[in-house]
Write a structure and sequence with these properties.
The protein has about 140 residues and is of the alpha/beta class. It has one domain: Resolvase, N-terminal catalytic domain (Rossmann fold). It is built from four helices and four strands. It has a four-stranded parallel beta sheet with strand order 2-1-3-4, with helices on both faces. The chain starts with 16 loop residues before the first helix and ends in a 6-residue tail after the last strand.
Length: about 140
């Protein structure tokens, strides 16, 4: 006999092994996704920005992702959140981006498509769009 004892005493030193395995599986099966949003109006409140981030989080979770950084472009920012996001995608090998709508890239459809192509070409990332996708 090996001296191993199964039963309640085996689990009294910490969480059950099946719970640890579940936590590890949950953590490893959720790929990271970055968010991107543009705030053009100086009138956007912190509550509005928080609401958009909550929508991104909810959508990302529903699609099986772990939302990482949300890069927020503003009219008062001196550094481009878009290019910071591109560098982060490359550096951390994140392959997915979530946006509230394509309008957050640009207002004109041609520019939206150009931005999408640029992201895909530079990073290989896939773009997820929340608009029109709410349950």
């Amino acid at each position: 006999m090996s001296g191993y004892q199964a039963g309640p005493a085996a689990h009294s030193r910490g969480p059950p092994l099946d719970r640890l395995a579940y936590d590890l599986e949950e953590a490893t099966l959720r790929p990271k996704i970055y968010g991107y949003m543009r705030v053009v109006s100086g009138n956007a409140t912190d509550d509005e920005i928080a609401r958009i981030k909550d929508e991104l989080t909810e959508y990302a979770t529903r699609e099986g992702f772990d939302l990482g950084d949300v890069f927020t472009e503003g009219s008062t920012c001196s550094e481009s959140a878009f290019y910071t996001m591109l560098e982060a995608l490359k550096q951390h090998r994140v392959k997915d981006i979530i946006v509230p709508s394509l309008w957050h890239f640009a207002r004109l459809p041609g520019l939206q498509d150009a931005m999408r192509q640029h992201i895909e070409h530079e990073t290989g990332a896939r773009i997820w769009v929340v608009q029109g996708q709410r349950p």
